[in-house]
């Protein structure tokens, strides 16, 4: 079974689409190469409470485990 971090990576369009990621209290703040590859339904299925899009800057609202998930994603990069 895929981890929550792996599911979020998939929802963000894959590891190659993620330019940077950081945890910020309850959100993952990410910068992606191609915002069209971001699948909000997949992110919500992975446990996201919401997704905020601002061009290629994507914030994934996931709760208090944002920092550990960001660290897991950084380890994959």
Automatic annotation (TrEMBL):
<protein>
    <submittedName>
        <fullName>PTS sugar transporter</fullName>
    </submittedName>
</protein>
<dbReference type="GO" id="GO:0005886">
    <property type="term" value="C:plasma membrane"/>
</dbReference>
<dbReference type="InterPro" id="IPR001996">
    <property type="entry name" value="PTS_IIB_1"/>
</dbReference>
<keyword id="KW-0472">Membrane</keyword>
<keyword id="KW-0418">Kinase</keyword>
<dbReference type="InterPro" id="IPR050429">
    <property type="entry name" value="PTS_Glucose_EIICBA"/>
</dbReference>
<keyword id="KW-0808">Transferase</keyword>
<keyword id="KW-1003">Cell membrane</keyword>
<dbReference type="GO" id="GO:0009401">
    <property type="term" value="P:phosphoenolpyruvate-dependent sugar phosphotransferase system"/>
</dbReference>
<keyword id="KW-0598">Phosphotransferase system</keyword>
<keyword id="KW-0813">Transport</keyword>
<feature type="active site" description="Phosphocysteine intermediate; for EIIB activity">
    <location>
        <position position="24"/>
    </location>
</feature>
<dbReference type="GO" id="GO:0016301">
    <property type="term" value="F:kinase activity"/>
</dbReference>
<dbReference type="GO" id="GO:0090563">
    <property type="term" value="F:protein-phosphocysteine-sugar phosphotransferase activity"/>
</dbReference>
<dbReference type="InterPro" id="IPR036878">
    <property type="entry name" value="Glu_permease_IIB"/>
</dbReference>
<keyword id="KW-1133">Transmembrane helix</keyword>
<dbReference type="Pfam" id="PF00367">
    <property type="entry name" value="PTS_EIIB"/>
</dbReference>
<feature type="domain" description="PTS EIIB type-1">
    <location>
        <begin position="2"/>
        <end position="77"/>
    </location>
</feature>
<keyword id="KW-0762">Sugar transport</keyword>
<keyword id="KW-0812">Transmembrane</keyword>
<dbReference type="InterPro" id="IPR018113">
    <property type="entry name" value="PTrfase_EIIB_Cys"/>
</dbReference>
<dbReference type="GO" id="GO:0008982">
    <property type="term" value="F:protein-N(PI)-phosphohistidine-sugar phosphotransferase activity"/>
</dbReference>
């Amino acid at each position: 079974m895929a981890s929550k971090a792996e599911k979020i990576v998939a929802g963000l369009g894959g590891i190659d689409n993620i330019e940077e990621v950081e945890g910020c209290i309850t959100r993952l703040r990410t910068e992606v190469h191609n915002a069209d590859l971001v699948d909000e339904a997949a992110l919500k299925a992975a446990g996201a409470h919401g997704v905020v899009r601002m061009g290629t800057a994507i914030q994934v609202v996931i709760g208090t485990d944002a920092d550990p998930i960001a660290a897991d994603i950084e380890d994959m990069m």
